[in-house]
Amino acid sequence: xxxxxxxxxxxxxxxxxxxxxxxxxxxxxxxxxxxxxxxxxxxxxxxxxxxxxxxxxxxxxxxxxxxxxxxxxxxxxxxxxxxxxxxxxxxxxxxxxxxxxxxxxxxxxxxxxxxxxxxxxxxxxxxxxxxxxxxxxxxxxxxxxxxxxxxxxxxxxxxxxxxxxxxxxxxxxxxxxxxxxxxxxxxxxxxxxxxxxxxxxxxxxxxxxxxxxxxxxxxxxxxxxxxxxxxxx
Length: 233
What we know:
Protein name: Helix-turn-helix domain-containing protein
Pfam families: HTH_36 (PF13730)
Helix content: 40-55%
Low-confidence stretches: 102-129
Strand content: 5-15%
InterPro entries: WH-like_DNA-bd_sf
Distance between the termini: 51 Å
Structural class: mainly alpha
C-alpha cells in the first residue's frame, strides 16, 4: 500500500538524533518513518522501497536499518498480509528511547499469560495451523472491503486487529472466545472511535497493549448490553 506524506515537517525525539548507538543511516531511516507516522498512534506503513527512496540508500540497506532499529528497541515491526495471504508493507510503531520507557509503566503491558489449563492448552501446531484461513475468516466477518473503501486512513489499525483476533482466541478464556467469535464491523468501528485521539508514544509493547485494550473493550460492551434497561412502552 502506498503511503502519502501529509505534513510539511516531522517531529523527531532528540534522543534519536543524539544516540551514540545509532548510525547516521539508522537515524535517517527513523526520521523518514517519523515523517510518515500518525501523530497519535506513532505508527506508519511505508514500503522498504519508499524508505530507501526517501533516505537515498539501497533497499537492502533500508531493510538492515529497520531490523537494527527494532533490535535496539527504538521501534516495533509487524508484518501485514493481503486478503489472499500475500505480503504488504510492514506496520511500524515508533517508541520512546529505551532509556525512557520505564517512565511509562502503565503503557508497558506485557503479554498476558494463557489462562487455559495445561490439559486444554493448544500445541504450536494447533495454535498456528490454518492461520491464513482464520485471518481470512475474520476479514469476511468484519467486511474488510468496507474499511478499505470508506476508511482507508484506518486500514492499518484494522489490519492490526484482524491479526490480533486469532492470536487472542488462542490465549483466551471460553467466554472471551465467544466475544471474539462475534466480532463484526460494528465492534471494529466502535473500537476505532473508542481509541481515536489516544497517544501511544509511551507504549513499549504496542501489540500486547492493543490486544488487552481490544479485549477489555469487548467485555465492557458485553456488560453494557447485559445491564441495559429496556425502554418502557
